[in-house]
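Quick question about two entries, pasted in order.
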Amino acid sequence: MSERLKKIFESKTPKTKLVSYFVGCYPDYKTSLQLIKKAIDNGVSIIECGYPTSEASAEGPVIKVAHDKVLENGDTLKKIIKLVEEIRNYNNEVGIVMMGYIANLYKYPIPKFVNDISNAGADACLVVDAPHELKEENILREELKKKGLSLIKLIAPTTDDSRLKEIVGISSGFLYQVNVAGVTGDKSADETDVANFVKRIQKLTKLPICSGFGIKSPKDAVKIANTGCQGVIVGSAFVKYIQDNMKNKDLPSSLGKYISTFTKEL
């Protein structure tokens, strides 16, 4: 398990960590770096840095637009890893999770990817479309383990107890609890359902739980923070803010202020 992630969740402040998803190099490399720096400055505990693919099956329309823009710009996974290195040079405490799809890693290939993200200062990897039975996911998990990095796993509301036990047994860092079925940014999360799901997971593991999908406002974040999870994950809301304010000459500072409306409540 990543020592940095362990330290983040052991810290009493903030009580609930804000995990913020960004599409790496969106809308471009330079702006992306400035946006993420401002997110860190305004209290984000963990950055999920998405690497895009043309087949982003779990992404809603907002994040899909961002993926397409990065691909159109010709920014590669290698460049996003360079971005991670700059983020790490800026701040040594923030957690950094690489998040994306298995096809990118297979092509990279996996051992080189893990070596490169380790050198860049990342703490973990989350692969959206790789079940733990997949050979490539097992290779990834072993390579991450060698470097002391974490493999973050998704748990959906549809995951049965038997499979849930298997997933928590191979996870480290934290668990990504998906609050609603479907794609990102599509539906709102129900706090009662989330609280019941958290209790169900906590019967099986002491790993920190971060809840994502369906958190669209600071009010939503507070509701989910009160379900017993250790972190709330916000992605589409921040990516949409970037898209809606692209003409703002000081977009990074503006986004930072928006993010602070979330963190000050947690």
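Here is the second entry:
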Amino acid sequence: RESDYAAVARNFAREGMNILRPRIDWRGAGPGYAEMEFPIIPWTMAAFYRMFGIHEEIGRAILWLVSLLTLLAFFALARRLLPTPAATAASLFFVLSPLAVRVSNSLQPEGLMLLLLLVSVHFFLRWLDRGARPDYWISLLATAGAIMVKAPAAHIGLVLAAFLIAKKGFRGLRRA
């Protein structure tokens, strides 16, 4: 999978930056268009490839940055939901989680999906507390982005609905 991501990024850089037409290497005589999730990571890699040349380390650096932002988003969400000692412990467990470590440097969409899911939940909870429309829209955009990056992220709707019901009861589901 990581090889395909790197190939798609390289092909964006060499053959055109149309984000809706990702191309794989094992295409034979055809154009090689790939059916895949929204290729924002390979496209971003290709944009940097065009500036600095094709270096696979660029993709790892991008996903490393995404991983750091994920840690910050997790810390913020943990502080919102838990008392300080519990938030610190949860953050420590998250940082040391083998899955978080593995996702932090792999060329796959899971790291970005996790970041967007955490941002979505954080801003949804802020919207429930404060009622500010920007918080709602940030949550909505982060949710949509997570689903575009990796379709199984749609499960977040159940989590957001649970928070909504806990805060406003079932009447909260009736309002648009």
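Reply: The first helix runs from residue 2 to 15. Helices lie at 2-15, 40-52, 57-81, 84-96, 98-104, 110-130, 133-149, 156-168. Hope that helps.
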